[in-house]
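Action item from last meeting closed. Structure (730 res):
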């Protein structure tokens, strides 16, 4: 559509005073000067989604401080406003355009690589800056990004750290960097017991064989700290000879209606200084490992990194504006040391069964009576991990319904099992002697999240903290892992950190591993063989109480046809190495590097096995009988963990009831081969569901994935059981 006479355009603009918008420039711009590079990039990413939905061609018109293509050039989407388009900026973007100024309430978007990659001048400046501290091209290093303020001319100082002096701040950051590196040792030095929960995150970095010591590079906008590092005063940190130039602050003064030759020369000199300064951005993007402080600049660099999993974020704390998000590594060690101690206090995720330790009160104590499905349970436990870390409590899981969680999932680095050695009696300590919260996430019948708000207030007011707080606090919840609580609970943004948390908590149980291998074998896929999986959450299970109406595309076969197109498009982005099209690798930095990791080594081809995972029995049967190539489906009957429940007799169960219960648990285990197949896939296409989301977090190759999302035909409703349709995006 780009350049066609019938094309309609959505244009990101940043005007300069004296440019095509004249005196109106700063009024038209967000925050007058359009903010820094990170804010601009995320704004363009946001508009890409709007352009896709409204069938408009995305363009970028940046005058201030120079055209964006001086710093970044297009990836797969050519957003440049070039002469052949016949667009006159003054006529079409000012006089003839409908304009919106859209200021954010703030932070993070997960797009990036398809829009931007580095301009050659920035790459050269990056290589020169690294060379100045003795780091050659391709040599691994760790980068620390401290957004502190202190630039000459910066109008608003950045007060993000309350840890004392600049050197104190650097000392804490150094500890975080060392902790990060200790988790990313070469395979031959990997400590026993740590590999499984980081196996996906480490896939690419292991190839580099990271060692400690390795070069540590400090990138900061604080001139004083940078000079100290540059002159070798703060080993092991070094800092390149680059003067930070904030894109919003250092602006040349333009004359309305035109500029003199001297002004033009000054403007060009400023642009060149910006290019050199963006070596900082390039250093962050090229780092093998990185520790970031919160900023749009750092967030966007992280999105473009080839090794995104070796990263830690310094996030906000209760003292003022910062705490370390090395909290998970710290909590893993603390949990191990405190578990079972007489002075330990516990935060226990619970899911009771009727007739179990909670008796007739079981369904009243559980969220949504039956605790929802596997995805909801996993995310609730992830949410409680953050609460436990903040309140100094040992996290445990007590699941009775339909069976102990460890029948399906086993601990990663955090041992959440309630084992006999702890001396905890479930009836006495988790029912009679515990303070209990039922915490349901926001849903269509409670848009304010009343239970969630009440629990947050208890946490923030210190009810779960300190020596006088209850020893046992039990919670049944399906709250989102990323749910914002406030200080002192560590934030958890969407991104690699969420996957690391999931892998620290969960691995497939041996029973589910065996069931997964058997299911794959039934469709002729051997252990370790790459395959693509499609997950369609459609409903249609026997006994499922609420039909899932997520797709408005006609028949089941129409839905599958759209999904097949999406799968083909996904595979076309991840070809085998020997068939890599010229020029494609630049905008997909994961290829041959970190994002695809082992998947590239597998040599993915479009004819790899295609496995359909769906809870719709009619569609599954058609595929299983070979009716719809290229799809195959294993002979597993889907059993929804919330729906297929055995009926227990209050106060005990007969031998026949016990046998029926065990048979049901085994059916659940066999059914969870579906979950294992998603986890083990080389590439995957998901429909929206907690089940699929959680499988994605445990995958070793998370970047070869696509999501089938909601469309304009449906009416999206809050809640895990919401009705609605979905638009399939390829």
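Sequence:
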């Amino acid at each position: 559509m780009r350049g066609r006479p019938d094309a309609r355009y959505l244009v990101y603009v940043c005007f300069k005073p004296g440019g095509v918008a004249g005196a109106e420039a700063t009024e038209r711009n967000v925050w007058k000067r359009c903010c820094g590079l990170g804010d601009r990039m995320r704004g363009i990413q946001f508009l890409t989604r709007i352009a896709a939905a409204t069938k408009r061609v995305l363009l970028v018109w940046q005058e201030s401080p120079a055209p964006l293509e001086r710093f970044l050039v297009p990836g797969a989407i050519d957003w440049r406003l070039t002469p052949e388009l016949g667009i006159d900026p003054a006529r079409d973007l000012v006089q003839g355009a409908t304009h919106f100024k859209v200021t954010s309430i703030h932070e993070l978007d997960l797009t990036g690589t398809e829009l931007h990659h580095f301009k050659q001048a920035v790459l050269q400046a990056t290589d020169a800056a690294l060379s100045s501290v003795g780091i050659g091209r391709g040599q691994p290093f760790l980068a620390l990004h401290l957004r502190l303020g202190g630039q000459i001319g910066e109008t608003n100082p950045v007060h993000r750290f309350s840890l004392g002096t600049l050197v104190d701040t650097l000392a804490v950051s150094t500890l975080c960097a060392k902790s990060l590196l200790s988790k990313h040792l070469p395979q031959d030095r990997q400590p026993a017991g740590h590999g499984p929960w980081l196996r996906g995150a480490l896939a690419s970095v292991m190839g580099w064989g990271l060692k400690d010591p390795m070069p540590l590079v400090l990138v900061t906008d604080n001139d004083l700290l940078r000079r100290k590092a540059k002159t070798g005063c703060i080993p092991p940190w070094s800092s390149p000879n680059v003067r930070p130039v904030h894109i919003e602050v250092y602006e040349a003064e333009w004359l309305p209606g035109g500029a003199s030759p001297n002004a033009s020369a000054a403007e060009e000199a400023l642009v060149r200084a910006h290019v050199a300064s963006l070596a900082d951005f390039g250093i962050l993007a090229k780092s093998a490992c990185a520790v970031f402080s919160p900023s749009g600049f750092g967030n966007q660099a992280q999105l473009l990194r080839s090794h995104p999993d070796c990263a830690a974020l310094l996030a906000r704390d209760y003292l003022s504006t910062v705490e370390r998000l090395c909290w998970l590594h710290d909590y893993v060690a603390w949990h191990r040391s405190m578990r079972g101690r007489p002075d330990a206090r516990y935060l226990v995720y619970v899911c009771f069964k009727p007739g179990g330790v909670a008796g007739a009160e079981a369904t009243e104590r559980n969220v949504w009576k039956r605790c929802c499905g596997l995805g909801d349970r996993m995310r609730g436990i992830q949410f409680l991990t953050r609460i436990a870390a903040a309140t100094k409590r040992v996290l445990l899981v007590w699941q009775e319904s339909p069976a102990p969680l460890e029948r399906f999932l086993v601990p990663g680095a955090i041992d959440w099992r309630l084992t006999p050695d702890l001396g905890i009696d479930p009836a006495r300590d988790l029912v009679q002697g515990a303070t209990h919260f039922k915490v349901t996430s926001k849903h269509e019948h409670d848009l304010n999240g009343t239970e969630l708000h009440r629990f947050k207030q208890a946490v923030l007011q210190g009810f779960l903290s300190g020596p006088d707080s209850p020893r046992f606090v039990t919670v049944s919840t399906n709250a989102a892992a990323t749910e914002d609580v406030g200080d002192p609970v560590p934030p958890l943004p969407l991104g690699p950190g969420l996957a690391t948390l999931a892998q620290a908590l969960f691995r497939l149980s041996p029973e589910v591993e065996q069931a997964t291998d058997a299911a794959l074998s039934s469709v002729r896929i051997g252990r370790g063989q790459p395959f693509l999986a499609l997950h369609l959450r459609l409903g249609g299970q026997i006994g499922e109480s609420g039909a899932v109406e997520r797709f408005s595309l006609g028949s089941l076969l129409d839905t599958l046809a759209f999904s097949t197109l999406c799968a083909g498009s996904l595979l076309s982005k991840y070809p085998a190495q020997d068939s890599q099209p010229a020029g494609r690798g630049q905008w997909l930095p994961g290829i041959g590097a970190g994002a695809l990791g082992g998947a590239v080594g597998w040599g993915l081809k479009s004819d790899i096995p295609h496995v359909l995972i769906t809870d719709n029995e009619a569609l599954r049967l058609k595929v299983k009988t070979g009716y719809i190539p290229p799809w195959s489906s294993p002979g597993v009957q889907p059993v929804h963990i919330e729906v297929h429940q055995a009926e227990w007799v209050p106060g005990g169960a007969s031998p026949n009831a016990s046998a029926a219960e065990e048979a049901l648990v085994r059916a659940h285990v066999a059914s969870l081969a579906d979950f294992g197949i998603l986890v083990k896939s080389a590439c995957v296409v998901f429909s929206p569901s907690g089940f699929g989301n959680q499988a994605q977090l445990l995958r070793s190759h998370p970047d070869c994935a696509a999501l089938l999302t909601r469309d304009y035909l449906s009416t999206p409703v809050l809640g895990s059981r919401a009705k609605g349709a979905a638009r399939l995006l390829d």
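Note appended to the action item: The chain is about 35% helix and 10% strand.
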